[in-house]
UniProtKB/TrEMBL annotation:
GO terms for biological process: immune response. GO terms for cellular component: external side of plasma membrane; extracellular space. This is Ig-like domain-containing protein. Residues 89-178 form the Ig-like domain. It comes from the Eukaryota. Belongs to the MHC class I family. Keywords: Glycoprotein.
Amino acid sequence: MYGCEWDDETGATGGFDQYGYDGEDFITYDLETWRYIDLQPQGEITARRWNNDAANLENNKQYLTQECVDWLKKYVSYGKSTLERRVKPQVSLLQKDTSSPVTCHVTGFYPRAVMVTWKRDGQELDVDVELGETVPNGDGTFQTTSHLRVKPEDWKRNRYTCTVLHKSLEDDIILPVTEENK
């Protein structure tokens, strides 16, 4: 596998050119010395032969430090609007019956990273909480769930909320668990 890296904040660039065989690392290209390094004894002959090809070594250096980085910058600029977009989540609470868990369903958000927490009387809960997997929607956004299992008598004594934190939000979404919301 080969490729390059570019930090758009610092301008730092890097690259890699690595070969494997039978599930093991075999040969890698060292960007400091611009030479191939065998990572297994079986790769020594190939690495030596490739290191004796000055034109190929120069070609790799040019590709990894210039051409690949130029392409990477171009493709990032093409996808910038998609990569940097922010779509706010929609949040709802669901419960089948009083003995089943309450589900905080979060959907339609982008980017993928989201945090869903439960609180009881303002204190964060981690007991009786089950986080679901974040999965893609068909429209390029994401969805996730979080389930809270609480005894019916505890609903009456305490105040529970589902809180959603996401990059698209100026303020967190806080949904109180009430009879109307479930």
